[in-house]
Specification:
With 109 residues, the protein is of the alpha/beta class. The protein has one helix and seven strands. The strands form two sheets. It has a four-stranded mixed β-sheet with strand order 5-6-2-7, with no helix packed on it. Strand 5 and strand 6 form a beta hairpin. The longest helix is centred in the N-terminal third of the chain and has 13 residues.
Length: 109
């Protein structure tokens, strides 16, 4: 009886992991490929320059689970955890917010 072979190559995965682990991550977004935003100040809405991002709620230890939000074709989205309203502003860079200071930046332990 022939052995079942999964179409995904685990050897390829190992190569991808090694390559990614060795590449520098100079993206200006707190070491993340997807920008993470927080709302420590309790703003009623935050303008962001991307339509796909992660919401952290607030900075640790008061953060909520980091959730991926995708506006799709819409211009705004509300986080289901913290109720922050995010609005797309295409004049902002991916790591900019209005009001300023809402980019989540990991702090060294």
């Amino acid at each position: 009886m022939p052995r079942f072979r999964h179409p995904f190559s685990f050897r390829l995965l190992a190569t991808m992991v090694r390559r990614d682990a060795n590449e520098p991550r100079e993206n200006g977004m707190a070491g993340h490929l997807i920008p993470h935003f927080q709302n420590d100040a309790g703003h009623s809405s935050i303008e962001v320059g991307v339509s796909e991002f992660m919401c952290c709620g607030a900075n640790p230890p008061h953060d909520h689970p980091h959730v991926f939000l995708d506006m799709g074709d819409e211009a705004e989205i509300v986080c289901g955890y913290c109720s922050t309203l995010y609005r797309l502003n295409t004049t902002l860079k991916p790591n900019e917010t209005n009001p300023a200071g809402c980019l989540f930046e990991e702090r060294a332990a």
